[in-house]
Design goal:
By secondary structure, the protein is mainly β. The protein has helices at residues 81-88, 92-99, and strands at residues 46-47, 54-55, 71-74, 112-115, 135-143, 149-156, 163-173, 179-186, 191-192, 197-204, 213-223, 230-231, 234-243, 248-257, 263-273, 279-286, 291-292, 297-305, 313-322. Among the domains are: 71-115, LysM domain (Membrane-bound Lytic Murein Transglycosylase D, Chain A); 130-223, Sandwich (Immunoglobulin-like).
Length: 325
Amino acid sequence: MKRYLIFALTATLLACGQLITPEPSPVATGRTPTPVLAVTLQPTVTLRPTATPRPATPEPTPTPTMTATPIIYTVQPGDTLLGIAIQFGVDAEAIQVANGIIDPRSLQIDQVLIIPEPEDDSGAPTATPTPFPLTVQGVNFVENPPGTLWCFGEVANPGGSTLSEMVIGVNLFDANGELLASQAAYTALDVVPIGQTVPFAVPFDDPPPAFAQYQVAAISAVPLLGNTRYYLNLNPVEVSATQVGDNTYRISGQLENTGADNVEAIKLVVAAYDDIGKVLAERQASLDVVVLRGGARTPFQLDLTIPNATASRYGVQAQGLIQVQ
């Protein structure tokens, strides 16, 4: 993506979700959203004791500086299409088109990519690309005992294209607008279909003692072009939520493959929300099952701890990849 998308750094396959209203004692089975992993959850979070920060006014989008020569790049371990685009200051979709990439996750180590030339700045003026219309909502800051600050929230896709590799950028400012810290992270799931949402969690390992303003924005995304291995037909069913401690809830159920394809690399993601829609916590984990066949189910059970807050509902989503035969 062009660097204008990275202004915030200066400084699922989605399955059907379900809703659960937790009670102080075990909740009846029903279809609703839920969490992740019955193992070690993400860091225990505590509400930040400082004054409530307010959103900062976004700064002008910077104009990217690009090289004028095409580049041949060999994919390295851990590379993503979006990361390569950011590295070279070019548009990720342009790399997709130039190399005939249908699925952004299909990159292979040692694969050779052509990094296309940027648009010529010397000729007639060209139109400024329009960012994908991703909307950030439910933003909430929490802090865990070791001192890591988490920015939780979710990103919604109200546009006309299914998007992948969404990156969320967070800037923290003092009362005078001075930048204190900046961080970015991918969303919990790789894909957000049209009209749906996915949660995110952006960590600050060394946060400032306090901050007064913030910016949270979706700073980049890649459209899915043509066929893809991403698999959407995963549905959490028979979901229940039980309170097992003062601040801990156990969410269990079955994950059903409602399609015909076998699916692998499955992820489950849960987000907990308060009564006004703020994201209190988010957890994600892969299931133990290696391949879930078409029409089959696999059980899941996840514990989610939410200190000093009350969750009014949970959202459970899942995604995977069509198995390579």
